[in-house]
Structure formats: C-alpha cells, structure tokens
C-alpha cells in the first residue's frame, strides 16, 4: 500500500510540472547559430521544419530555444539561465551546460521522438526549479547531480522526468531533495547514490522498471533519507541500505 500511495503522489506531481514555463521576463541574452547562420538577438531561437543544428557558444538567459520538427542537434556550451531548451518533434540530441534558475525556471524538454539529453547538473531551489523532461518516446537521459527540494504543488527543486516511453536515465548523486521519476513504461534508472547526506527520491512508476547503481552496480540508499520506490508492476532492483544497522532510507516495491 505504501508503494501505491507513493506512486500516486509522485505521478500526480509529475503531471503538475509537465507544462513548459515561459522564459523569465527579463533581458534575453544569447549568441546562437542556426544551421551556420547567426541568430538575431531576441527571446526566441527557433529551428526550421527540417533537421537543424543549433549551437550556442555562451550562456543563454531568458531565452526559449526550440528545434521544431526534424531530427535536431542542439548544443549550448554555456549555462541555461532562466531559459528553456525544447527539442520538439523528431529524434533530437540536446546537450547543454548546467541548469541555473536564478529568478525563474531552467528546463530541458526533449519532446516527441527517441531523444538523447545530456546535462551535467540539475540543481534547483524551492522557488526556482531546474528540470529535465524526456516526454514521449524512448529517451536516453544522462545527468550529473540532481538536487533541490520542490516547493508547493511539487514545483521547483531539481527534478528529472522520463515521462512516456521506455527511457534510460543515468544520474549522478541524487540528494538534498532531488528527484528522478521514470514514467509510464519499462524504464532503466541508474544513479551513483540517493540521499547520502540529506534526502533524494527515485521512483520508477508504472511499468517493469530496472533500478540500480551506475554501470549495473548496487545502488546505495542513504545513509541519509533516501527513498527508492519501484512503483507499480514487477520491477528489478539492485538496491540496498548504505547503513543497514541504522537505516534512515526507505526501499519500497523494489525486490
């Protein structure tokens, strides 16, 4: 029953956070190139209906980058400051530097298709969130540290969502309230640790999920208040308490 309750709570929270936020109202800043041509200054960097290459050399701030239709390659070498990077339709590759929400939200949305997302850190605050969404399709999401507790209505904090499709999510340490949620199908979630100092959450959701440590090792929950919940269906887990004698972590629905 505890696993079912956790599943319902976290799936509901994910549905509240899937609507993309607008870029924070402020002076937009970017230096981006679309298919070899420099993009004029402004709040929007939009691709074409075909396959695009969008490259941004520096930080992007208060900007929306959207690949649109086609198999797009979007690379942002600087910080994602109060901005969104949206893959759109197609099998896209989105690679950015750190998500940095200052006055608004910083997020990556892969969109429809089998996408690849690479982000070094997903670190938000209660008021200003950093989030990665796989959306539809079988996505491969690779992130580093995930941290930051969500605030009211599960908004804010540092969060990674697989959403729809059989996704593979590889994360670094999930702590200080950070959350990784698989989604609706058979997902694979790997992490280097969950809740080693404070608390973090991994939740598989519906589907036959696999939850384990990095490179198919045993994932340690704790010694802080880590939570690993396989969710519904029959899951495969390689998870154990970091401190079995004085376990503060929780492992649920995860045989």
TrEMBL record:
Pfam assignment, any one: HemolysinCabind
Protein origin, superkingdom: Bacteria
GO molecular function term, any single one: calcium ion binding
First and last residue of the signal peptide: 1-23
Record keywords, A-Z: Signal
Name recorded for this polypeptide: Calcium-binding protein
């Amino acid at each position: 029953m505890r696993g079912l309750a956790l599943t319902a709570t976290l799936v509901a929270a994910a549905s509240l956070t899937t609507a993309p936020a607008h870029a924070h109202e402020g002076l937009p800043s970017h230096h981006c190139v679309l298919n070899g041509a420099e993009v004029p200054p402004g709040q929007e960097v939009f691709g074409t209906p075909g396959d695009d290459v969008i490259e941004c050399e520096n930080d992007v701030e208060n900007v929306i980058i959207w690949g649109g239709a086609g198999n797009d390659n979007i690379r942002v070498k600087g910080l994602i400051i109060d901005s969104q990077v949206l893959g759109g339709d197609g099998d896209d590759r989105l690679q950015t530097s750190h998500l940095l929400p200052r006055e608004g939200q910083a997020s990556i949305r892969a969109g429809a298709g089998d996408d690849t997302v690479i982000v070094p850190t997903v670190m938000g605050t209660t008021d200003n969130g950093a989030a990665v969404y796989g959306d539809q399709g079988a996505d491969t999401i690779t992130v580093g540290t995930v941290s930051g507790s969500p605030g009211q209505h599960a908004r804010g904090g540092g969060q990674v969502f697989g959403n729809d499709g059989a996704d593979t999510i590889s994360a670094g340490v999930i702590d200080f309230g950070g959350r990784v949620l698989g989604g609706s199908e058979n997902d694979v979630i790997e992490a280097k640790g969950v809740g080693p100092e404070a608390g973090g959450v991994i939740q598989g959701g519906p589907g036959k999920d696999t939850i384990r440590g990095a490179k198919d090792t045993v994932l340690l929950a704790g010694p802080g208040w880590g939570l690993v919940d396989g969710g519904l269906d029959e899951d495969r887990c390689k998870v154990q308490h970091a401190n079995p004698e004085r376990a503060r972590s929780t492992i649920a629905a995860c045989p």
